[in-house]
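Support case: 6-O-phosphono-alpha-D-glucopyranose complex. Customer-provided input:
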Amino acid sequence: HAQLRGDELIVVSNREPYIHETGPDGVHFKRPASGLVTAVEPVMRACSGTWIAHGSGSADRSVVDKHDRVMVPPGSEEYTLRRIWLTPEEEQGYYYGFANEGLWPLCHVAHVRPVFRESDWEAYRRVNERFADAVVAEARSADPVVLVQDYHFALLPALIRQRLPRATILTFWHIPWPNPESFSICPWRTELLEGLLGSTILGFHTRFHCKNFIETVDRNLEARTEHEHSTVTINKQTTLVESYPISIAWPSDTQRAAWPSVADCRSAVRHRLGLGPAHKLAVGVDRFDYTKGILERIHAVERMLEKHPSWVGEFSLVQVAAPSRSDLDEYKAFQQRIHQVVGRVNARFGSPGYQAIYLLAEHHEHDAVTELYRAAEVCMVTSLHDGMNLVCKEFVAARDDEQGVMILSRFAGAAAELNEALIVNPYHVEESADALYRAITMPAAEQRERMANLRMTVRDFNVYRWAGRMLADAARWRLRERIEARM
Ligand code: G6P
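Agent response - structure generated as follows:
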């Protein structure tokens, strides 16, 4: 990651990488369940710099200095976290409202209707302004490299551009970009597009999302789009729209050496659930979110057990569902529905000491998740729509024994890269049920062959390559602009 050295780096995201909470024995921190944080944090540790984010934990305010800064990670202090405090009204309108009731369902085809409230939009605009001011306050030079993250900040690139015209602004959209018809129902579509086009580079996970974005611009703005070079020019500002599939940091030898053996993980997890040593497990790890296909996954398990009753009592799904955005009605209703359906399926197949589905509806730290990955025969990612999905890449990274089968939704960005997974359409219960059966009966040799290839892909296309490619493109771009300015 040579491109990352020498430049001043500022990251902006809504979610902070470390959340400080007050517990009975003082302040402790937790790592949030967020694909964005999983990917960007190792890059920040490698480059240092400043990460500006919304302060969210109960103890967050007590650990910062008078400029609202704290060095993180706790204990090793490699970069600065600058926290922005939002009022309850701002958080309601900007985060819960416009970002998560408006843009989140707008961009994911998951059949949840987006809600657009004028007051949410006002709060979203205001909060984007506040973050733009914070970028200026934190910047020590006139041309920092600012990495703007995700749908919480569509207006930020143009706001930074007004204040720091020489900044290199790399914006990454971590969720899908829908087709122009879907996007165009948004009352503020032109403001959002113009905001994003303040970026030097605008990144998506896949070519398909880039194409959707450029078509959306074509339909809604008087801009010059060059499909061949994948650029958009408006008000003399040209933005490169490019795909950069995000990934994870491949675990180091030291990290791996600290992992308990696969045998120990297997017995620890089975022991905790009161299951026998030969019991087969599939694992699902998600935020408790309606885009993740958790209901469809449960239906697939149910159908598999119905078709292959000899597996009743011998197989279970362990589903981690980390509570997320639970203040929103849509999320509350979804959580209730999942609890209900799990109850029904367990009543149907369960017996004393056995459940078909273990729903662990609480936050799990990374070590606990790694233990589950290493203990399971199968990992199920059945998102109805997902920008990339990093759970599948983490599962692959955790399996240094080259065993375990990945079942992956074709509607996750990762399906384009992870060809050796069993790819399913989660809307098709029968297909997913058959894939699950195939996974739990797959011979070890075939598992090894598939897993070895998957591991090569994830190791080579890791998150440093993601960041490195974006920064290399930015450097080339700046150089060209400078040369053209001289002509
Ligand atoms: C997705 C989004 C991230 C977000 C994460 C967790 O991965 O792309 O921006 O951080 O979900 O959601 P939350 O609302 O808890 O931050």
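The CA atoms of residues 405 and 439 lie 6 Å apart.

Case will auto-close in a few days if no follow-up is received.
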